[in-house]
Amino acid sequence: MSKCEEKENKMGTLRNDKWRHVWPFFTIMLLHCVAILLFTRGFLLTRTELPHFSHCSDISKCPCFSSSSPSPLVGDTEVEEEDLTAATRRPDLNVANQSHQQTRCWTRPAVDRLIIIVLDALRFDFVAPSTFFEEKRPWMDKLPVLQELASRQGSSTKIFKAIADPPTTSLQRLKGLTTGGLPTFIDVGNSFGAPAILEDNLIYQLAQNGKRVLMMGDDTWLQLFPHHFEKSYPFPSFNVKDLHTVDNGCIDHLFPSLYQEDWDVLIAHFLGVDHAGHIYGVDSSPMIEKLEQYNGIIDVETSIFAMSLKDPPCSIPAELDTSFCKLDLDGNELCIGTFQQLDFAVTISALLGIPFPFASIGHVNPQLYALAAGTWNPESSEENKCHHKSNLRGWMQSYLDVLCINAWQVKRFIDVYSASSVIGFSSEDISRIGHMYTLAADSRSLNIKDSLYGNETQFPVLKRQIDAYFALLQSVADLARSKWTEFDLRMMAVGFGVMLTSLVIHYVAIKRAYDIYRASFPTLGNSGISSGLVLAIFVVAVRACSFLSNSYILEEGKVAIFLLATTGIANIRHSIMKMKMAFEVVLLLKLISVLRFSIDLGPAKQGIGSAGTLNSDYEGHLSVYMAEIVPMLALFLLAYLLYKTTQNSSCWGISKCVILGSILSYVLIAIYWVIECKKLNLPPELQSVGKSRIPQTIYGIGLGQLVLLTLDQLFSVEKTTDSKGRVFVKTVAMLSAWSSTVIILLGKQGPTIALASIIGGWCIMTLQSLEGNEAKDGTSPVLTFNPLSVTQWSLFAVCLFFCTGHWCAFDGLRYGAAFIGFDEFILIRQAILLTIDTFGFSHILPIFGLPVLLGNNPFSQYNLEKQSVFLKLSFVYLMYGLIMATSVTFTIICVTIHRRHLMVWGLFAPKFVFDVVGLVLTDALICMASLYYF
């Protein structure tokens, strides 16, 4: 046989050996993807969006305008077939040709023009006086104009606390505000590429009924409503590092537009507070500056465009007033109401006299309706409150008419939805809603009959009728909140079954690898069940079961720290018994304590940036300079460790060039932080170039390093027989290639987190031999396997996720990291950067770093065969993947059990999304690692 044929046969044998170890990872990843897809299709279904639209002509079918007969019963309110056909047809929008000849549609218009100023992410404690809270915080009382207007005697201004249904991303809130419905969780995925809203909504009704809408600010509005605005001034909204472009654009167009007469509804959407919160945090100087800027804008706007509301003749009944009152900073009584964002669309529609959106399930808010209609003045004197009781009775009768239309519209939607949707509402729910509607309609019928005979309806009667409609509308809203998502239990069960199948295959693959390992290398250990295995199973089971409780999910990081500390205590026991490695055990426990403290500071790390904080008294303090110097020192220490690592062996080859590239990237990161430091007052041109070109250069170096390692893996020929040493070299090279990008995205906490991960990894690697079985010949157990070390590795990765300022919620994402080095938004590029920032230290680096568990001395005297290294790596990766898959399986069980829980969309669903994304990423990274290392 020729040398070429012999070489080909050898390469073919190596490829066969490689794929024999690799194929289980790809099979498991495929099963996980199928399971997640099926379960998600059943769990995160959107509600059925009906293609029906309200029209002015629909009101002819409403029993509320019938004065000669009682209101129809439940079945009579169903929309006739020809009405549904007409409602289904959506005429093309041509706003420019709309006429203003129709002054009344469903309700009598209470206002002619409307200004809607949206201050994104404006929390309640930003607006309400600090006296409403137990503790005054720095961001409070920065909007005194609103407080002064609301507390002024006889003022027509009122502060409401808006209550939003989760999820609370911009797309969901805008959709909920304009449609009056409950957007479902699955739409979160569309927040970065918002599709046009196709169902009936407030903006559509405004355009269809001749209202000229002017929009300025967040360009999400234009994506949701592409053909609805008479005029628009959109500005890009995805660069969260940009605090001023959208706001300045609004300011430039808002004040001139107030003097114009070419609009009926003006919408100005500011984003500065939202972006400042994402980048710098709530207690930062940029946040305070933005709030003060908004205060000035509102002050000027109210001075220019003062609404000429009518002098209120009397207040609405106290029973309809849900306000809570306290004294403000000046000692004046200030009352604040509550407002469901679900009610916004129908309330604005009633005020403007346009049809209510077909799918709206909100109710007309009595306080806002009375306020805008000019009948709200609770502070007026008793003598002036009611010049005549008929005024109050007239208002209540008018509001009752509006509620009647509101209830008819909601009942119509419920009937159509149940008839059109695949699942719809249950017959019991429909019957209960129908009965409540009948009672309210019958009560109103008696009122109409009394009016026909000239009898004035008494206040208690009107109040009971209003209460009946309130109960009906509230019942519908509660029903929608509890059953809006149509869970496909069969699809969820199939997905869960596939997930269980993947766990079985995981176990079989581990058993197979272990059997091959024991058969091939019988002298390297025995098959006894160790206490480490029992403890590992116990720890994984406890963490998985903790996902069944919402309290433990909220404290997931602390739970992981506690379990990691528990395994550290077990290491202490073995260390005492064997009288060795006490230093490593103590160091690991100390590191765990530091991580525990860091997790408590996790949310505050969302605000890590270059801007100053509110603690101005400490600007000259040593701690301020230490915060700048320590990351630099940690970065240079990382570079030194990398350099020293390459000096331990001569078998580095191309990997040494990769590591030198990482050291260069570390230097560039240090220069980037110097340029970013405002205390140096560097030229703006230098800052602008440095903030974009340096990160881009680092990304380019990192990409080049990965390409170089890939080519080396494909075409290089092994020159060493020490397979374990070769794997160690490749591990260090791969980690260094990823590290620079992960560190610059994570900010100045990156180097210290990297050092912590190195220390923790070294401790776990060293301590794994504490509970090892010596070989029969007495040599070091270099190939024995302790599953507790893999469990510690996975727990350590979870801790790093929370230590870096992340948590399992969409507001736990550090959006600013996606724009380091870039100003414009490109979906794929920014998504990749955000993924690396989010999962860098918790998934990417830990998975590529797993081969260090092969042993604590990679260049030892034992030149291990390649087959043994493959088996050990396969064993480690299968065990790590099984731990992750087990946790996700219990997450699936959790969301299945709690699918009707109040916090399903606010807590359990985000946890599910983060876990399944993390599992798919873990599988993909394990597959790539197996191709790279094997």
Question: What is this structure's SSE topology?
Answer:
Elements: H1 3-43, H2 81-88, E1 114-119, H3 124-127, H4 144-151, E2 159-163, H5 170-179, H6 202-208, E3 213-218, H7 220-224, E4 231-235, H8 245-258, E5 265-270, H9 272-279, H10 285-304, E6 324-327, E7 333-340, H11 344-352, H12 366-372, H13 382-385, H14 389-420, H15 427-452, H16 459-483, H17 489-520, H18 531-546, H19 550-554, H20 556-578, H21 582-600, H22 622-645, H23 654-676, H24 684-715, H25 723-746, H26 750-767, H27 787-803, H28 827-849, H29 866-897, H30 904-933
Parallel strand pairs: 1-5, 2-7, 3-4, 3-5
Antiparallel strand pairs: 6-7
Helix pairs in contact: 1-17, 1-29, 1-30, 9-10, 14-15, 14-16, 15-16, 17-29, 18-20, 18-27, 18-29, 20-21, 20-27, 21-26, 21-27, 22-23, 22-26, 23-24, 23-25, 24-25, 25-28, 26-27, 27-28, 27-29, 28-30, 29-30
Widest β-sheet, arrangement of strands: 1-5-3-4
Q: How many beta strands in the DSSP annotation?
A: 7
In whole angstroms, the N-to-C terminal distance is 28 Å
Query: Given the helix and strand composition, which structural class is it?
Result: mainly alpha
Spans where pLDDT lies below 50 across 5 or more residues: 67-103, 187-194, 306-314, 376-388, 519-528, 607-620, 773-783, 856-863
Number of distinct helices:
30
Radius of gyration: 33 Å
Shape type:
globular
